[in-house]
Amino acid sequence: MQPYIYFITLAVIFGTIIAVFGLRFLQASAVAGADAAHTDAYRKLASDAVAAQAGNAATLSAIQSDLAEIKTRMTAVEKILKEVE
Questions:
Q1: What sign results for the dihedral spanned by CA atoms 56, 59, 65, 67?
Q2: What does residue 80 show for φ and ψ, rounded to 5 degrees?
Q3: Sorting pLDDT into bands at 50, 70 and 90, what band is 3?
Q4: What are 11-67's pLDDT values in tens digits?
Q5: CA-CA-CA-CA dihedral for 12, 16, 18, 20, to nearest 10
Q6: What is the largest CA-CA distance in the chain?
Q7: pLDDT at res. 9
Q8: 57 burial via Cβ count (<10 Å: 0-12, 13-18, 19+)
């Protein structure tokens, strides 16, 4: 066997091994990048949900105070109506 064929064969074998590991590294890097983007999107979604929850709590508090005022007025109207009868 001639030496240059031997070296070409070794180069192809080692080149294939290096190419496979290189592709696996690139794939793992791409997966990590996608995971980081997904995590950032999830954090933003959670932050938006917390902000919406705080807004809903404030709105609910305002509605409850308005409802308490309406109940007070309704009680006063009922009292007046009973006195009129």
A1: negative
A2: -65, -45
A3: confident
A4: 999 999 999 999 999 999 999 988 888 888 899 999 999 999 999 999 999 999 999
A5: 180
A6: 122
A7: 92
A8: exposed
